[in-house]
Amino acid sequence: MNEKKIYPWYFMTGAVLLFLMLFLIPSMMGIFYSFTDWNRYDDNVNFVGLKNFQKVFSGNSNYLLFIKNTLAFTVISTFVKTVLALALAILFTEKIKLANLHRAIAFAPQVMSMLVVGLVFKAMLHPSTGFLNIFLRAIGLEALTRDWLGSIDTAFGTIICVDVWKGVGYGMVIFIAGLQAIPKEYYEAAEIDGAGFWAKVGNVMIPFLLPTITVNIVLSISYGLRVFDIVYVLTNGGPGYATDVMNTVVFSEFSSGNYAMGSTVASLLALLTLAVSIAITRTANRKEVY
User: What's the CA gap between 136 and 10, in Å, rounded?
Assistant: First the structure.
């Protein structure tokens, strides 16, 4: 009996230790340092209470803009990716030719490194030598050419488009798995009742896909709130602060030696991600079909 009780913990010990050393302890230390004035230029670390948090939420700083950019990126990219992923999943589960090939093509960007994707699109979107503007000029649409990543009007939307292009395939695969798990009897019953395509989508697919939709939304929101690499590679937060998000600010603060403010923004980001994920999961669980 004793061996049976110890046996599961024997295999969990390594994972628990790694979790403590690489995640929990650093997270707790980060929260602690967010209440201090820790920086590169002073060896003394002094407790300052909520001063750093007051600075973040004061109207005299740009931190509220960074939070707004992060939330806007998260909401827009999550909505677009979820809708497109669901549409592609429904399309590719219908009886169409070469469905597996279409799925592979849609999923292919997901396996590419974000750094590679960012560098490729940065070259393609260059205002003078980029493929997109050259193509627009070639077909007589020069009026539509833009400095896609250098203009305040287009930079933020362009980053979202690139992120959607790369990430929609992942959500599509999750939705395809959810669609294939729906019993065929429900489709047959709907057809007997005279339901058309859209009626089956609304009355059969969507109700059964609520757990899958929840998973996709939570994953997309979690990624959106933590987005860094695509913004850093494409614009590095520019022009000005137009595309700066919370993680680029954390990177900037730590790079400049302002460790306390970096820890403060990172702690707020972690709490925001946790709160939003719990709220969405609880809301969706009340509406799931069992």
Answer: 62
What's the pTM? 0.89
Query: Which run of H or of E encompasses 152?
Result: none
User: What does pLDDT average to in each consecutive run of 10 residues of the chain (290 residues)?
Assistant: 60 86 91 93 90 88 92 96 95 84 92 92 93 94 93 95 96 94 88 85 90 90 93 92 94 94 93 86 65
How far is CA 88 from its chain centroid?
19
- Dihedral of CA 20/21/25/30: which sign? negative
- What's the token pair of residue 138? 């070639």
DSSP per residue, 45-94: --B-TTHHHHHHHSTTSSHHHHHHHHHHHHHHHHHHHHHHHHHHHHHHHS
Classify burial at 70, counting beta carbons within 10 Å of its beta carbon; exposed 0-12, middle 13-18, buried 19 or more: buried
Distance from C-alpha of 120 to C-alpha of 125, rounded to nearest angstrom: 9
Any idea what the Cα angle at residue 170 is, between residues 167 and 172, rounded to 5°? 110
Tokens read off for 69: 């950019």
Go through 193-220 and write b for each residue having 16 or more CB atoms within 10 A of its CB, e for each that does not. eebeeeebeeebbeebbbbbbbbbbbbb
User: For position 43, what pLDDT does the model report?
Assistant: 84
